[in-house]
Design the sequence.
């Protein structure tokens, strides 16, 4: 389980009046329906879902502190009441997810604003597979010598085009855990530790496939040290590409 996913599960966030901006940008040639899910007590922006046509920008003022995740849904069709479904990333067959998580496989951008010691934590999570490329980057600060400090976290590659046959899904690429649902691939049961769950010892090292294409993204449980970025007191941009 990633540090960010752990925070989403256990962190109770107190809502404050002050906040920061998150800018969403759709650089794709097709429409993306954004999904959003806040942690307990943190609230969910725009009801948890909104449409973004190609080239569009949406800026949302977020509470600080706040923790949650965003993802892009594709192939969606909704009626006038916001009921329908999406080919990837669906959340309860509705436009506004309203507390429902995205159906994998999907690429998740995870954010914690104002975390431990006032730090922000953010990452791209492929632990549930991939559907579209996403980047999250600080807007007002630039990183220095530390790669994981105030630099973009990104998975810019179209993994679907290269997805191994056994992981392929309609519009996405599954993780090994999602595809095979074994204790070893899911790092659970007797494999639920960093020592016991080493992807290099799996029958096939599927996380190495994801990591090779998107080295900055979280690829399987216990991959935090090579995927968690930090910054503070800045706005962020989330790009669907």
Sequence:
């Amino acid at each position: 389980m990633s540090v960010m996913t752990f925070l989403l599960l256990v962190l109770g966030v107190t809502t404050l009046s002050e906040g920061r901006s998150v800018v969403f940008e759709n650089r794709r040639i097709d429409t993306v329906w954004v999904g959003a899910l806040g942690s307990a007590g943190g609230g969910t922006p725009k009801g948890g879902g909104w449409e973004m046509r190609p080239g569009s920008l949406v800026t949302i003022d977020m509470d600080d502190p706040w923790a949650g995740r965003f993802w892009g849904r594709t192939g969606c069709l909704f009626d006038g009441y916001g009921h329908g479904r999406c080919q990837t990333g669906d959340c309860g067959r509705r436009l506004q997810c309203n507390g429902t998580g995205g159906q994998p496989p999907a690429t998740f951008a995870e954010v914690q604003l104002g975390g431990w010691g006032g730090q922000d934590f953010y990452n791209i999570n492929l632990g549930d597979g991939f559907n579209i490329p996403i980047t999250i980057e600080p807007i007002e600060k630039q990183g220095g010598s530390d790669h994981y400090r105030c630099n973009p976290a990104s998975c810019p590659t179209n993994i679907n085009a290269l997805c191994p046959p056994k992981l392929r899904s309609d519009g996405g690429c599954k993780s090994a855990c999602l595809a095979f649902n074994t204790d070893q691939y899911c790092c659970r049961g007797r494999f639920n530790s960093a020592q016991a769950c080493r992807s290099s010892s799996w029958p096939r090292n599927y996380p190495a496939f994801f990591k090779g294409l998107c080295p900055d993204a979280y690829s399987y449980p216990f991959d935090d040290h090579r995927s968690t970025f930090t910054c503070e007191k800045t706005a962020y941009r989330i790009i669907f590409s």
Helices lie at 3-10, 176-180, 183-186, 206-213. The CA atoms of residues 95 and 144 lie 39 Å apart. The chain is about 10% helix and 30% strand.
